[in-house]
Write a structure and sequence with these properties.
CATH architecture of one domain: 3-Layer(aba) Sandwich
Helix content: 40-55%
Order of helices and strands: HEHHHEHEHEHEHHEHEHEH
Distance between the termini: 24 Å
CATH topology of one domain: Rossmann fold
């Protein structure tokens, strides 16, 4: 078969633009990462992140002078130091980038077994590199006439899922020939995801020298106002904890839901993780475990904030044994769960 027959419409003239054989793209998306820990890399990343109206929805005339003149003058130094403490020096990249690459490779391998080379798997970041726009362009250039967009957030929040979707659709606005697209729903109650979480906790408890007295499920926080404005994030987090508790066969005394990463002056979802772990230590719960179900991959908020700052708060209040249970990352049960979700969402396309 000639190259003309393969790559151009039937009966097309010889000078017709080449059209790649049709494929389906699967684009995994995560929050983002700075390119380095230096001041300017951090400033670029934080500037993009904190300028997102989904993340900080204050009026620009009020927020941007504060951001550009004060926050982005100081915060890149402290954030750079925090990233430096967890940086993957061997690959010269953030752990989130390393893990997302591993997840993408695992997904690619699983889908190749099912669909052969009809599916192209890649990943992008909402902030930083690789950008959503660049990866959408690459998938289209490879012949992807359909794209499944998968934000790797188990729980929907305007500041995460919606922002990722916004960026994805902004990228599509630049395309002459837009692919058909689907967006994966939040998977906070997916049985296979809950089971993968439970397995990771059971393994951590089995490996612990002393069984933790209570499990703290620490979710990334959002302002309390967002809940009152209709964001379902808080309710979805609470449901994940309940389903996890039921799957583990525990009672209410063995597990608690908290929220971390508070930023700015307004009230956020409570209880705050950093305060709750100190309170637990003060009332005699000196042996705790902490997991982060809202994160699909370990990142600055888990490796540095939980395993350093929150751990320090617990120990200063009298806590003795602090077990951080890593995110699911590229764990086989997690990747099986995510692959199952992708398969379901590709229904009718392949």
């Amino acid at each position: 078969m000639s190259n003309q027959t393969q790559h151009c419409p039937m009966h097309a003239p010889a000078d017709h633009p080449e059209i790649k054989p049709a494929k389906v793209g699967v684009l995994l998306a995560n929050l983002g990462t700075p390119d380095g820990t230096d001041y300017w890399s951090m400033r670029r990343y934080l500037g993009e992140f904190l300028s997102d109206k989904r993340v900080v929805d204050y009026p620009s005339w009020k927020w941007q002078p504060l951001l550009q003149l004060i926050i982005l003058t100081k915060r890149p130094f402290s954030s750079g130091a925090a990233y430096k403490s967890i940086w993957n020096t061997e690959a010269d990249e953030s752990p989130l980038l390393t893990i997302t690459k591993q997840q993408t490779a695992a997904m690619k391998s699983r889908l190749a077994e099912i669909y052969g080379d009809d599916v192209v798997v890649d990943f992008c970041m909402r902030y930083g590199n690789p950008s959503t726009k660049s990866k959408v362009q690459e998938l289209i250039a490879q012949g992807c006439q359909k794209i499944l967009f998968f934000p790797l957030y188990p729980h929907y929040a305007g500041a995460t899922s919606a922002s990722a979707n916004d960026q994805f659709f902004r990228a599509l606005m630049k395309e002459k020939w837009q692919p058909t697209v689907r967006v994966v729903d939040p998977y906070f109650e997916e049985p296979a995801y809950i089971d993968a979480l439970a397995q990771s906790i059971e393994k951590a408890y089995e490996a612990a020298d002393k069984k933790p007295e209570i499990l703290v499920c620490s979710y990334h926080g959002v302002p309390q106002r967002y809940l009152m404005e209709g964001d379902p994030y808080h309710c979805q987090c609470q449901k994940t904890t309940r389903l996890l508790k039921e799957r583990l066969g525990w009672d209410d005394t063995q597990i608690v839901t908290t929220f971390q990463s508070r930023f700015g002056p307004e009230e956020w979802l409570q209880p705050y993780t950093v305060e709750e772990v100190a309170r637990l230590a003060e009332v005699g719960k000196t042996n705790i475990a902490v997991c982060a179900p809202a994160f699909s991959a370990d990142c600055i908020e888990t490796l540095e904030e939980i395993n350093e700052e929150i751990k320090e708060s617990f120990e200063e209040a009298g806590g003795e044994h602090f077990t951080y249970i890593p995110c699911l990352n590229d764990d086989a049960a997690h990747m099986d769960a995510l692959t199952g979700i992708v398969e379901r969402n590709l229904g009718g396309w392949l």
